[in-house]
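Q: Trace token order:
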Amino acid sequence: MRVGSTASRALAGWLRRLRRPGLEPTLQMDVSANALLRRVTDGQLDVAFVHEVEGCALHIPEDLRLRVLVEREPQFVMLPADHPAAARPVVRLADLADDRWMVDPTVDGEWDGVHRMLRAVGLNPRVLHGDYHTAASLVATGEVVTVCQPSSQSRPDTAVRRLYGDPLGVRLLLAARTRAELDAVFPALEDAYWEAARQSTAYREWLEGGGIRTLPRCPVAATGGGRVSCGRAEGSRSRRPRDVAPPRPIG
């Protein structure tokens, strides 16, 4: 099983669930979702897990099958732990007006999405370009702030916080050439994703607040001790995964 993916904290759990006797998945990482989709089409990958920044549609080949994992995953912000805004669970963009931002322009749609988000509230901050490993290091030293996946976890020197109003979101998609290939790996991806989501305090609190738009196969529910469990509610039916067709060219 040849797996491709953009960055995700669900990857380790997904690969672990796919691994079994006679099946050892391989992994190709790429910051470009479009590049991964082309590799699936060309037969270089069997499946690809990618994200699509809202307002920045991916170039999806016609012959691919797509399945939506999350219709809209909110993007959070990572800021220095001693930043004044880090004292609150929800941060307004105006609270970051004087900060420098770091964006990875090689991630499809990322720069456009972040730029649009900032312009919508009248901000035109200084922006540095670099990969997100570098960004995390610079956040820790107080040099920049950056958008991050909600499953990211705070550390002693960094804080992950929700952005007020959830102004930036991405759609999480699994792509393959056939429905059978999607069926073979999607349940493991779904379980791994929600496992990673529960491990993030900020994302868990957002989920408990009813912010989710696409429920996991086992609905997320709050339990005692401030934890979120993935358990089936009595009498409930899980939502079937939604497949989507790639757009057809006009003419």
